[in-house]
Amino acid sequence: MWFKSCSMNFAFLNRMKSYRLPWIRPYSTSRSTVDSNEVKTFLALAHRWWDEQGVYAPLHSMNDLRVPFIRDNLLKTVANHQPGKPLSGMKILDVGCGGGLLTEPLGRLGASVIGIDPVDENIKTAQHHKSFDPVLDKRIEYRACSLEEIVEETAETFDAVVASEVVEHVIDLETFIQCCCQVLKPGGSLFITTINKTQLSYALGIVFAEQIAGIVPKGTHTWEKFVSPEKLESILESNGLSVQTVTGMLYNPFSGYWHWSENTSLNYAAYAVKSSVQEHSGPEFALKGEREELRAEASTNSGVREELKK
Ligand SMILES: CC(C)=CCC/C(C)=C/CC/C(C)=C/CC/C(C)=C/CC/C(C)=C/CC/C(C)=C/CC/C(C)=C/CC/C(C)=C/CC/C(C)=C/CC/C(C)=C/Cc1cc(C(=O)O)cc(O)c1O
Ligand SMILES: C[S@@+](CC[C@H](N)C(=O)[O-])C[C@H]1O[C@@H](n2cnc3c(N)ncnc32)[C@H](O)[C@@H]1O
Ligand SMILES: [Mg+2]
């Protein structure tokens, strides 16, 4: 009887060990998230990043919202911080940094920031701009590459990953988020801002903003690539990220200012945290129901109890 129950439990544990959640699947470098049409669009505007009244004016003013959003959420994760340089000691990856509009203020808050972008000309513009400030020049490093190209060498490196107004420009969003998760330290923070996929975002974000008012250049966005908060949350959660906040952002084209809103039907910001549980092949990665099944067995069987302790 003892032998029978023991061998059953070992078979059960072996079955448990073969389980892998999707977010601990090894990443295949053959997948690219870069769309060559997007590269052409951003290449054509690469010299215009720092014109505050120009095509990227909405991104300049978005800093009023996204910089404090990132700073304040990151400060909740630390016990104390240096006044004036609250993010000092933190390593941040700014994915799709463009000309460095968001990278620079994060560096000014004291963080060590790596900005990456697949468009070489964007990186040249970003590098040129930061070179005027010796402090930023030391704190920020720019690289012309995609996230998937650096995912292996930078695994579990960053306290925070930022992808602001980027996910609506990538192909294969699942791979993109999987890479974001892989480069985060356990417990690290992911910040995303993007545009919802609604009828309103088509009418205002594409027809009005691009074709009527010229708030952003024609062809900047493709509605099919917009992502709803529900879909984004589901991808984040299935990659082991716990969504903390999703909040709407509204752009007022008359004033040129952004406002926080409960309404997420146009633009929104999301904040998620990577699980602090380390990758492990043991039974703690069993699916929820099966973990409970395992605990139930543990309560009656010392062999299973010992396995669970490992
Ligand atoms: C065909 C069709 C339906 C046309 C509609 C035309 C029309 C009548 C539009 C009028 C809309 C309008 C201006 C309404 C304002 C009136 C109103 C509702 C007042 C309310 C008063 C109030 C509550 C004020 C508070 C201030 C506030 C928040 C006002 C905003 C109200 C509101 C809903 C405005 C929406 C107006 C609008 C057109 C917003 C743009 C929507 C959008 C999705 C833009 C996306 C573009 C963007 C800025 C993204 C970032 C970005 C930027 C760039 C770049 O190149 O700069 C590149 C990128 O890749 C990006 O991602
Ligand atoms: C709208 S801009 C946002 C720039 C910057 N994040 C900001 O908010 O100021 C989008 C940027 O994403 C970059 N990009 C496009 N596809 C990408 C991908 N697959 N991976 C990383 N960046 C990408 C573009 O080159 C462009 O610089
Ligand atoms: Mg965009």
TrEMBL record:
Residues 287-296 have a biased composition (Basic and acidic residues). GO terms for molecular function: 3-demethylubiquinol 3-O-methyltransferase activity; metal ion binding; polyprenyldihydroxybenzoate methyltransferase activity. It comes from Sus scrofa (Pig). The keyword S-adenosyl-L-methionine applies. GO terms for biological process: methylation. It catalyses: a 3-demethylubiquinone + S-adenosyl-L-methionine = a ubiquinone + S-adenosyl-L-homocysteine; 3-demethylubiquinol-10 + S-adenosyl-L-methionine = ubiquinol-10 + S-adenosyl-L-homocysteine + H(+); 3,4-dihydroxy-5-(all-trans-decaprenyl)benzoate + S-adenosyl-L-methionine = 4-hydroxy-3-methoxy-5-(all-trans-decaprenyl)benzoate + S-adenosyl-L-homocysteine + H(+). The lineage of its organism: Eukaryota, Metazoa, Chordata, Craniata, Vertebrata. Belongs to the class I-like SAM-binding methyltransferase superfamily. UbiG/COQ3 family. PANTHER family: METHYLTRANSFERASE, UBIQUINONE BIOSYNTHESIS O-METHYLTRANSFERASE, MITOCHONDRIAL. This is Ubiquinone biosynthesis O-methyltransferase, mitochondrial. Pathway: Cofactor biosynthesis; ubiquinone biosynthesis. Residues 282-310 are annotated as: Disordered. NCBIfam families: UbiG.
